[in-house]
Amino acid sequence: xxxxxxxxxxxxxxxxxxxxxxxxxxxxxxxxxxxxxxxxxxxxxxxxxxxxxxxxxxxxxxxxxxxxxxxxxx
Length: 74
Hints:
0% strand; 74 residues
């Protein structure tokens, strides 16, 4: 059985950031065909997405009263 990974692990966040950077890089490359701008925009996208998700991970507090199979709203 495959090892279960957390969706909020640093490796998962980094993968999402890199995929976002690649997507932005392709879009910018198709728009301007200037490699300097492509690397600037793709690199800044990776940094912004990575830091944004890490900050959201740090700010989230786990809910101690959650019981599996039960709704949270009453």
